Amino acid sequence: MRFRLTAFCLAAAFIVACNAPAPKDLPRAQASPELEAGFSEMIDSVVASFSDMTNWQRIVNLHSIMVVKDGKVVEEKYFGEWTAEKPHPMFSVSKTFTAAAVGIAIDEGLLSLTDKVAEYFPDKKVEGNPCNATVEDLLMMAGGHDTDPSADVLVIDPQSRSSYIKEGAEIADIFFNHPFVHKPGELFVYNSLGTYILSAIITKLSGESLLDYLTPRLFEPLGIEKPVWEADKYGINAGGWGLELKTEDMAKMGLLLLQNGKLGRKQLIPAKWVEAMSSKHIECAPAGVRIEEAEEVCGIPAEINDWRQGYCYQMWRCVPEGSFRADGAGGQFILVLPSKSAVVIMTSWTGNLQRELDLVWEYIYPNL
Q: Are 62 and 345 in contact (CB under 8 A)?
């Protein structure tokens, strides 16, 4: 579950932030005095969180943070082994890139939101367990499953802070064999395998892996060089996980979403699709938590829980009004803040992700 990683998963010690210069792909600017002060207070809080190593719920094991305001990087910091040049596992932030690919493919006439996903996999039909989900249902995590089958496929390695596909896993088989209990589109059940299915559909329609499909359409225009994305034995990128990016690469994607999919004069992602990707489509709760149990499990009211603000298309809404995010296990975030003309990026390996976000809402957001 996103809110609760064990203390074993956290780093044994907090190392002083590195000051190696970052690549200059994005322009840099001086932060306002207010933001400088708020950023410094947040970093102090991160360091202070390590004062009691037995309290994993308190520790915010940040690996990097970058603040972009009005298109310019105004604050950034890297911790320990993590540097500006080192790609970081994205976990479920990968899903946002898959959703972008779906929107581009729709714009190119390859598929539609109403397509039934089972029609792309006629050899995977299971007698007595029909999949009636559409592309849109999978985008909003409402394909009809009652539980998430991802654990049958995905291994998270706390020591390497990475994830990988179990050897020999037949991901599509596991997805289509898992019981479909609910009417598609009605119940949010977080499901990374549904995102893999979207990746597989892109591959079937384009003849390319998701990574190859996005390279000329998104990665190269953004200046994201040679990204790595885990693929299964069939060459299908995982879709819901497995992408690795640098912190500044994440910022470039955040800026693109902030700019409604437009880079300069070129529309990389259709503006209407960015609006759809970032709009609430269904009530939600943290991964692995049923909506009716969310308040009890999380221990905080829904109105201040960033996992209760609504699920979009492979993204989440945030507590500050109008904001949304790409979100990955362990605390990988692309926070898009339109009212502030800002993007905040964080990489991490943290147990209490709400605390990580709360530090942004307390120290950075008011000072942007």
A: no
Instruction: Please tell me the distance from the alpha carbon of residue 203 to that of residue 201, in angstroms, as a whole number.
Output: 5
Q: How far apart are CA 94 and CA 143, in angstroms?
A: 19
Residue 215 carries which DSSP code? Answer: I
Residue 70 phi/psi, 5° resolution?
55, 40
Phi, psi of 205 (to 5 degrees): -85, -35
CB atoms within 10 A of CB 350: 27
What distance in Å separates the CA atoms of residue 129 and residue 118, rounded to the nearest whole number? 11
Return the structure tokens found at 24: 């200059």
pLDDT one digit per residue (tens) for the chain, 368 residues = 344 444 434 443 343 444 444 345 899 999 999 999 999 999 999 999 998 887 778 899 999 999 999 999 999 999 999 999 999 999 999 999 999 999 999 999 999 999 999 999 999 999 999 999 999 999 999 999 999 999 999 888 877 777 889 999 999 999 999 999 999 999 999 999 999 999 999 999 999 999 999 999 999 999 999 999 999 999 999 999 999 999 999 999 999 999 999 999 999 999 999 999 999 999 999 999 999 999 999 999 999 999 999 999 999 999 999 999 999 999 999 999 999 999 999 999 998 999 999 999 999 999 99
Q: Which residues contact 283 (CB under 8 A, 6 or more apart)?
A: 188, 291, 308, 310, 311
78: β partners: 18, 64
Helix (H) or strand (E) holding 73: strand 72-79
* Rounded CA separation 62/43 (Å): 9
Predicted TM-score (pTM) of this structure: 0.93
User: What are the residue ranges of helices labelled H in 178-243?
Assistant: 192-206, 210-214, 220-222
Q: Which two tokens stand for residue 350?
A: 């943290």
